[in-house]
What does this fold into?
Amino acid sequence: MKHVFCLLLILLIQYGTAPSEAPGNIQETLQGTKNLRFVWDEVTCGSRGGKHTYKYSIDTTPPTTGTTETTSVEIDNLLPCTTYEFKVQASTSAGDGPEGSIKASTRNIGM
It folds into this structure.
């Protein structure tokens, strides 16, 4: 039984778990006619689940998706005067955590 516990502990340390918390304080920090920039707070230490990256998406057609190791992203080639929903979640090799989201709009041309 002791060996099984040790093996499970080694696997958890090596591979981690899926994050248990969504990134917080998501904000739009740049609003252009064709681009938006978003920032968010790092997932708290106890909720990360190990080495992690962030997966993000924005509801363009087709959806724009990506992965980053930082807590910010700028998305280009958007339509002017359009509202989008941006989603971000922490991800480890063990799985994805819950999503956080925000709605943001690009500016109208000439503004």
